[in-house]
Write a structure and sequence with these properties.
Length: about 160
């Protein structure tokens, strides 16, 4: 195997990771589909995706992955990149594994709202260079959504 072949394989694997197993490549509401993938994985393995160390690993690897994709494509925050939505959605759900479906739906709606509207600091965080800017707005949207979800759960449930 030549060095070029290895690099090509590494680039393809990174693309699969960055696009959420290709979900982001569907070109139809990629951020929402990435968030839905995160919800599906949450229901399959909630203990893993609500582990703070795992989410930290996803954020750090997401930064590296986004940097590599930006370098490869010359596109900043390509809409097909959804690892940021996946990580942000998991952060929204981090405070409680085993949420009821209605609570997860509320968390999903909160996260999508803050990820799309991007009020204040969430929006300006995108101005940071490379993968940090790509991942940070979703980290902030996830934090705000997690806090609001906790309040809603305490008040309503």
């Amino acid at each position: 195997m030549r060095d070029g072949d290895i690099m090509s394989i590494a680039q393809r694997l990174n693309r699969v990771y960055a696009t959420g197993l290709g979900v982001g490549e569907l070109n139809l509401i990629p951020g929402t589909l990435g968030s839905l993938l995160a919800v599906l994985i949450y229901f399959l393995i909630p203990e893993l995706v609500t582990n703070p160390l795992f989410i930290l690993l996803i954020f750090v690897s997401g930064i590296l992955s986004c940097n590599a994709e930006e370098k490869r494509t010359s596109l900043k925050d390509d809409s097909s990149i959804v690892i940021d939505e996946i990580a942000g959605m998991w952060l929204t759900l981090i405070l409680r594994p085993g949420l009821m479906l209605s609570q997860v739906i509320i968390g999903f709606l909160l996260f999508r709202f803050f990820d799309i509207v991007k009020p204040g600091l969430i929006d300006s965080s995108q101005d940071l260079a490379g993968g940090v800017g790509v991942m940070l707005d979703d980290l902030l949207a996830g934090l705000v959504s997690a806090g609001l979800l906790q309040i809603i759960i305490v008040v309503i449930y």
